[in-house]
Design brief:
Blueprint (H helix, E strand, L loop, with lengths): L22 E7 L6 H12 L3 H14 L1 E8 H18 L4 E6 L2
Antiparallel strand pairs: 1-2, 1-3
Helix pairs in contact: 1-2, 1-3
Bound molecules: L-tyrosinamide (TYC).
The site of L-tyrosinamide (TYC) has 13 residues, from strand 1, helix 1 and helix 2.
Length: 103
């Protein structure tokens, strides 16, 4: 309150800065041993892809060496990478996925 009795409001509104959570890419890597059908099965089971989308993502990794599977939060990306690689390990395949922060 100023001495003329009028309360002065600060002119600028302070905006709370809510940082958006950083996003992570799940990357699928090609190898020479994991069967194509197994990769598609993993993409369907872990990443909820349809047969068609799973097949396309698998073929992209097969032809180009790697493919982005999904972009999501760190927690989800790391959980899904672990789930997919655990399935592969159990089945004896060297399938490799990573979670990488987006630039
Ligand atoms: N290259 C494998 C094969 O020919 C299939 C494959 C595709 C493996 C994609 C991994 O991320 C992968 N059997």
């Amino acid at each position: 309150m100023s001495d003329n009795g009028i309360a002065l409001k600060p002119k600028t509104k302070s905006k709370p800065k809510l940082d958006r959570p950083k996003l992570y890419k799940v990357i699928l890597f090609n190898d020479d041993y994991t069967p194509r059908e197994f990769v598609v099965m993993i993409l369907k089971a872990v990443f909820r892809m349809s047969e068609e989308v799973g097949y396309r993502v698998m073929m992209t990794a097969h032809k180009l060496g790697s493919s982005v599977v999904v972009v999501c939060t760190k927690d989800i990306a790391e959980t899904k990478v672990k789930e997919a690689m655990d399935y592969a390990k159990q089945a004896g395949f060297p399938l490799m996925l990573t979670a990488e922060p987006e630039e």
